[in-house]
Design goal:
The protein has 523 residues and is mostly helical. It has one domain: Cytochrome C Oxidase, Chain A, CATH 1.20.210. 67% of the residues lie in helices and 3% in strands. α5 packs antiparallel against α6, α14 packs antiparallel against α16 and α16 runs parallel beside α18. The longest helix is centred in the last third of the chain and has 38 residues. The radius of gyration is 24 Å and the shape is globular.
């Protein structure tokens, strides 16, 4: 089965998204280098002067399975520390089971293990199709996969034992930081950019631009935030940052905010622009809007980090500047959300019976909610109430579970029949997973929103004589216990849905053919 794919940029974007990729793809070649090569003798020239090649889907399968395995680890550790807020005795007196040790493990597993492997699966699959080229090096792909899993394992073996830099989202010590830089730049980055250099499709679809922004910016953020001086007195895994005081805090939240921006946002937007039109079998609503979305987001997002440091030692002008850039983020973020939802124009009837589209629609909706709330929380008068409270926790999980997790699961279900070359074992379980995930997110974030606002109001409450109405911190803790119970229930429901997804993934994998077909692509 073939469909023609012209190289003219005016048609490439919409033509690339008419539906799922076919077993054989035909594209026209007009470049001079290819014409010169065709004048040389060949033993078996392909028909119509086209190259024949196969995509590397094995690496996508690896990352997809790793994504799900680490997702369960991240979710279960998160549930365990959530239960500790209700029953502190669950630490059993063991230091490596305390909240302060396991919470960084939970965040690193959720961000870099679950979301990271989801990003790599989506990027490796879509980049090959959008470039009409196999990944540059199978060896680099394998080194990337195993290197990243070893990094995650190293985090699991160090964070619970207090080996940490004590920087949020950047807790890992310097030997692991060096490994991250090597794997991200040397394996992933080189493989990606060399694939772009060898692409057969002249036009670079907007998803590729989001991937480029991710790879470049994360590398810069990681390197500069982790410039440290190692200490070799008695240990090889201790270091101190080269920055000090407010400069260290400023650098940390330049990194911390943009880790969310360029690890949990831009790559997932690229995946949205690829997989949502594929699943809906509709071209993206407005390609021009997607370009505006990209450039405005990339320019504005990088400057918004200071809003994390309101009411601290950071100079007031710097936090005000961060607030202004954060407010400006409303426009491009909602432009992207609207573009995603309107891509379903003419296909909304499919959402009723296609659970993959349900995952995508709710994910994009949560993206809109999170990107509305983020600028809202950056406003100083609002931040005065929300700062240091569980409101921030609710905001983060609305984005991480609602946007990242649901988009990753939707992508997983869309990829499963294509990667394992068999039907999904149980479409009903996919639908059940969706509803359990959605219900679990709601049961999780709503009580924590209430808890956060309650915290803020209790902390600032004053008596008629001008004294704190709740001078003992434990009073606010007691008031939040019922909300923590509801959060744990919501997390349990969400994990139950993920467990059903795991069963479906395993059963589908088990029904795979004895050997996978290698679809030959012509381009």
């Amino acid at each position: 089965m073939r469909w023609s794919h012209p190289t003219q940029s005016s048609a490439a974007a919409s033509d690339a998204f008419r539906g799922p990729p076919d077993m054989t793809v035909t594209a026209t070649r007009t470049d001079a280098a290819y014409a010169r090569r065709q004048t040389q003798p060949q033993s078996a020239p392909p028909a119509y002067g086209l190259d024949r090649f196969t995509y590397d889907d094995r690496i996508v399968r690896w990352f997809l399975v790793a994504m799900f395995a680490w997702a369960l680890v991240a979710f279960l550790v998160g549930l365990y520390v959530a239960l500790q807020l209700i029953w502190p005795q669950l630490t059993f007196g063991l230091p490596f089971l305390t909240f302060g040790r396991l919470r960084p493990l939970h965040t690193n597993a959720a961000i870099f293990a679950f979301a990271g492997n989801a990003i790599f699966a989506g990027v490796y699959y879509s980049t090959q199709r959008l470039c009409k080229a196999r990944m540059f090096s199978d060896l680099l792909s394998k080194l990337h996969f195993w290197g990243w899993q070893l990094i995650i394992l190293s985090a699991a073996l160090t964070l619970p034992f207090g080996i940490t830099q004590s920087k949020e989202y950047a807790e890992l010590e310097w030997p692991i930081d060096i490994a991250i830089a090597v794997v991200w730049v040397g394996f992933f980055g080189v493989n990606f950019f060399m694939t772009l250099a060898r692409r057969r499709e002249r036009h670079m679809y907007v998803a590729i631009w989001f991937y480029i922004a991710t790879i470049v910016t994360v590398a810069v953020l990681h390197v500069f935030n982790n410039l440290v001086v190692p200490v070799f007195s008695g240990t090889l895994v201790k270091s101190y940052p080269i920055y000090a005081g407010v400069q260290d805090a400023f650098m940390q939240w330049w990194y911390g905010h943009n880790a969310v921006a360029f690890f949990l946002t831009t790559p997932f937007l690229g995946m949205m622009y690829y997989f949502l039109p594929k699943a809906a079998e509709r071209p993206v609503f407005s390609y021009r809007l997607s370009i505006v979305h990209f450039w405005s987001l990339v320019f504005i997002y990088i400057w918004a980090g200071p809003h994390h440091l309101h009411y601290t030692a950071l100079p007031d002008w710097a936090s005000t500047l961060g607030m202004l850039f954060s407010i400006m983020l409303w426009m491009p973020s909602w432009g992207g959300m609207i573009n995603g939802l309107l891509t379903l124009r003419g296909a909304w009837h499919k959402v009723a019976f296609d659970p993959v589209l349900k995952f995508f629609v709710v994910a994009v909706t949560f993206y809109g909610m999170a990107t509305f709330e983020g600028p809202l929380l950056s406003i100083k008068s609002v931040n005065a109430l929300s700062h240091y409270t569980d409101w921030t926790i609710a905001h983060v999980h609305g984005g991480a579970l609602g946007w990242n997790a649901l988009l990753a699961f939707g992508m997983m279900y869309w990829l499963m029949p294509r990667l394992f070359q068999t039907n999904i074992w149980s479409p009903k379980l996919v639908n059940t997973h969706f509803w359990l995930a959605t219900l679990g997110i709601v049961l999780y974030i709503v009580p924590i929103y209430v808890a956060g606002i309650t915290q803020g109001l209790m902390w600032r409450a004053m008596t008629q004589t001008g004294q704190l109405a709740n001078p003992d911190f434990v009073e606010t803790v007691r008031a939040l216990i019922p909300m923590y119970v509801l959060r744990a229930i919501g997390g349990t429901v969400f994990i139950a849905g993920a467990a059903l997804g795991g069963i479906n993934l395993y059963k589908t994998w088990k029904n795979r053919p004895v050997s996978y077909e290698q679809p030959v692509v012509e381009a």
